[in-house]
């Protein structure tokens, strides 16, 4: 299906959210001198573990509760490529418990909960246009920095894969009718609000380390 004005407006709005995300507290932290501290990096990775654990739930729940054949190939491919990435991170972290914080827990769990309540197009927005778009931005930056300090493949894997995972969503939304886009724009806005809240909380927790 050729992209109509609703599709183009949606993609343009997402570009605005992406540009705004580049300025959030977590992205600023990655550019700061604080990331040179080992204690800071440990807390950062403990926070990312919480988000990663919930992202694993997101891709699994999305696949399990999908019964639309037009979404099946991508939801299954996405699950296959993301499977157990959170376990890989935990092993790299020597199996330390993930950091528990009520705000980080609530914002991370929100995405998993939405896999029970949204339709497939709305789930596509959250998974590919929010989670994968933000992941692509963060991990591209984080890998360049963290590879100097940490013996982990987690950042490298996501810096290479998230851009392709982001593009999966465009294919799925090409077949969505224009009448659905006002609702999709609302989901997009909510998703970015929650993602920025989670990332800002990660930065706040990490910056507390002296």
Protein described:
The protein is mostly helical and 210 residues long. The chain is 77% helix and 0% strand. The protein is built from nine helices and no strands. It has helices at 5-21, 25-30, 38-64, 69-82, 85-92, 102-117, 120-146, 154-173, 181-207. Helix 3 (38-64) runs antiparallel to helix 4, helix 4 (69-82) packs antiparallel against helix 8 (154-173) and helix 7 (120-146) packs antiparallel against helix 8. It is globular, with a radius of gyration of 17 Å.
Strand-helix topology:
Blueprint: H1 5-21, H2 25-30, H3 38-64, H4 69-82, H5 85-92, H6 102-117, H7 120-146, H8 154-173, H9 181-207
Fraction in helix: over 70%
Instruction: Give the helices and strands as they follow along the chain.
Output: HHHHHHHHH
Per DSSP, the total helix count is 9
Which stretches of 5+ consecutive residues score pLDDT under 50? none
pLDDT average, as an integer?
87
The radius of gyration computed from the alpha-carbon positions, rounded to a whole number of angstroms, is 17 Å
What general outline do the C-alpha atoms trace? Answer: globular
State the assembly state of the protein chains.
single chain
List keywords for this structure.
210 residues; 77% helix
Concise structural overview:
By secondary structure, the chain is mainly α.
């Amino acid at each position: 299906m050729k992209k109509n004005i609703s599709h183009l407006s949606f993609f343009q709005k997402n570009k605005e959210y992406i540009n705004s995300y580049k300025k959030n507290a977590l992205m600023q932290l990655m550019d700061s001198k604080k990331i040179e501290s080992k204690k800071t990096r440990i807390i950062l990775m403990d926070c990312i573990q919480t988000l990663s654990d919930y992202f694993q739930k997101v891709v699994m729940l999305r696949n399990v509760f999908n019964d639309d054949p037009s979404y099946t190939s991508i939801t299954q491919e996405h699950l296959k490529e993301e499977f157990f990435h959170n376990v890989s991170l935990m092993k790299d972290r020597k199996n330390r418990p993930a950091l528990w914080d009520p705000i980080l827990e609530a914002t991370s769990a929100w995405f998993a909960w939405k896999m029970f309540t949204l339709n497939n197009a709305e789930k596509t927005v959250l998974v590919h246009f929010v989670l994968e778009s933000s992941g692509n931005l963060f991990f591209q930056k984080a890998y360049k920095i963290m590879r100097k300090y940490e013996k982990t493949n987690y950042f490298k894997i996501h810096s290479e894969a998230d851009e392709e995972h982001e593009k999966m969503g465009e294919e799925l939304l090409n077949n969505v009718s224009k009448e659905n886009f006002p609702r999709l724009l609302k989901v997009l806005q909510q998703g970015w609000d929650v993602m920025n809240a989670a990332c800002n909380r990660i930065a706040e927790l990490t910056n507390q380390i002296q």
